[in-house]
Design goal:
The chain is an alpha+beta fold. Helix content is about 55%, strand content about 15%. The chain has 3 domains: about 140 residues, no CATH class; about 55 residues, SH3 type barrels (Roll); about 80 residues, Alpha-Beta Plaits.
């Protein structure tokens, strides 16, 4: 899409010629008015110069618009092609999102340079200016460069991948995209969170999807005087009835604590990571209903006041 050096020089010379013609025509009008002569010819000359300049400018703007439209079409086409190729080759979604983001940035930079070249601006001088400005901007945006480097590290060492449920910096959600500067997460209540890649590599991170199985912990509180063995048997029957609760590793039921106002039963069971929340909420509901049906009283904080 870039123009060669010789056409670029020709365009610049044409622009200079047009500008000089407008200046000369304007100067002719001024001199004719000062000398009291007929200014119609001078005005006509000025008008012709401005018209020629406007037509030339319009052509260049139109050409730049066409380049922009075609360039955007090509960028979208390349992006779709990369996605299709990645899906056919079963490329990891983590690599796919990072590569797609990087390619789009590079193609957009190339499109901007092409538009500038089409408008008739010298790309050689612009390149020097862009290099100087790039150094200044690079120093100012050093954090973005560290985000890019962090994105590469995430891609190489894989502390998480697209589809994992992670928690970091007080935020938790499912990883949707890993881009060159940031990572996009989706929370359980459908909120989008954008976190800089550098934060993900320099702070603690919990990956709940890294292991195939997870342990679920519950604490049931019953009144003093209740039959612990009976409550333990009820809990055991509930866990045995759920096929999503793993038998290996085996679950455990303990008398965890004799608290001030209750006996605390600690329940620990294992399940596949994707079934964690399903089983967690299932047990909360079924244990509450079953304990009430069996006459097992749940404890609540209370204070016994002596009459003495």
């Amino acid at each position: 899409m870039l123009q060669t050096q010789e056409p670029q020089i020709a365009v610049n010379e044409k622009i200079d010629s047009t500008v000089n013609a407008v200046r000369e025509a304007r100067q002719g009008v001024i001199e004719a008015m000062q000398n009291g002569g007929d200014v119609r010819d001078s005005w006509q000359t000025l008008w012709d110069a401005i018209s020629a300049s406007s037509i030339d400018l319009g052509k260049r703007i139109l050409a730049a618009i066409i380049v922009y439209i075609i360039g955007r079409f090509i960028i979208k086409w390349v992006d779709k092609l990369l996605v299709k190729r990645s899906q056919r080759s079963k490329l990891d979604p983590t690599v796919q999102s990072f590569t797609s983001s990087l390619v789009k940035v590079l193609l957009n930079v190339l499109l901007i340079v092409s538009i500038i070249s089409t408008l008739g601006i010298e790309t050689s001088s612009f390149a020097a200016l862009f290099t100087a400005a790039g150094m200044a901007i690079g120093m100012a945006l050093s954090g973005q460069l560290s985000n890019f480097a962090a994105g590469v590290l995430i891609l190489l060492f894989r502390p998480f991948k697209v589809g994992d449920y992670i928690e970091t910096s007080g935020q938790a959600g499912t990883v949707k995209e890993i881009q060159i500067f940031h990572t996009v997460m989706l929370t359980v209540d459908n909120k989008t969170i954008i976190i800089p890649n550098n934060s993900l590599t320099t702070s603690s991170l919990v990956n709940y999807s890294r292991q195939e199985i997870r342990r679920i912990d519950w604490v049931l509180t019953i009144d003093y005087g209740q039959d612990f063995d009976n409550a333990k048997k009820v809990v055991k029957d509930l866990l045995d009835s759920n096929e999503l609760i793993l038998k290996d590793p085996a679950y455990n039921i303990y008398l965890g604590e004799m608290a001030d106002s209750s006996i605390n039963i600690t329940v620990r069971a294992w399940t596949k990571s994707e079934n964690y929340w399903t089983n967690y909420f299932w047990f909360n509901e079924i244990a509450y209903k079953t304990f009430n049906e069996k006459g097992i009283s749940f404890a609540y904080p209370h204070v016994v006041v002596s009459k003495e």
